[in-house]
């Protein structure tokens, strides 16, 4: 039975930036991505948009403000998608496919800003960092709650630990900024479908499959690679008992 899940409360939207401010944001994102936040100067950004350094401060408060706006903007786009994915008619697996494919294609569209987030997030000051962490937690909670919803519906295996699974899914998807190339052989939609297939096949509830027995290795192999032979213990699976990240 399909159950309704509450979509997290989204932060209040910021006004749409003017064309000039959009140009400044995009130029700063490109330079931060290429040089890193710490190595970038306000003069670099001013030169990129063809205005004097002093004139740039008419549009922004500081370099820190620029970094926050870039990261916050890409976060907000993702958060706005949550309501759309939740509104899709179907069970949790349908919504999970929408989540994975939507997240991946969004990352490809915003590759530069995603790169800035992962490389320069720690350069945010305390107040700005706290706000981004709260937005990130909304997104992470949505995925984890969706996995729990799937277990209640009986479509996600109840042996899956939602916390560990959500970290694995997000880690796999977010790393795309490291290897994606626009001139690659596979279009974004194909990559998104491959990733969603991997995720869903790993999550789907199937009584005829012993999850831990798939690919289980014999004792001599385990000794050689320093792992446990056969099936690892599953105590606590599905209860969110994974160590904190």
Structure description:
By secondary structure, this protein is an all-alpha fold. It has 2 domains: 18-60, Arc Repressor Mutant, subunit A (Orthogonal Bundle), CATH 1.10.10; 64-225, Tetracycline Repressor, domain 2. The chain is built from 11 helices and no strands. The protein has helices at 19-35, 42-49, 53-56, 63-87, 92-109, 111-120, 126-153, 162-174, 176-179, 188-203, 219-225. Helix 5 packs antiparallel against helix 7 (126-153). The chain is elongated and about 65 Å long.
What descriptive keywords fit this protein?
245 residues; mainly alpha; Arc Repressor Mutant, subunit A; Tetracycline Repressor, domain 2; 61% helix; elongated; disordered C terminus
Number of strands: 0
Largest sheet: none
Q: What Rg do the Cα atoms give?
A: 21 Å
Helical content (DSSP H or I, runs of 4+):
55-70%
Average pLDDT, all residues: 85
Please write out the topology.
Elements lengths: L18 H17 L6 H8 L3 H4 L6 H25 L4 H18 L1 H10 L5 H28 L8 H13 L1 H4 L8 H16 L15 H7 L20
Helix pairs in contact: 1-2, 1-4, 1-6, 4-5, 4-6, 4-7, 5-7, 5-10, 7-8
Summarize the structure.
The protein is an all-alpha fold. Helices cover 61% and strands 0% of the residues. The protein has helices at residues 19-35, 42-49, 53-56, 63-87, 92-109, 111-120, 126-153, 162-174, 176-179, 188-203, 219-225.
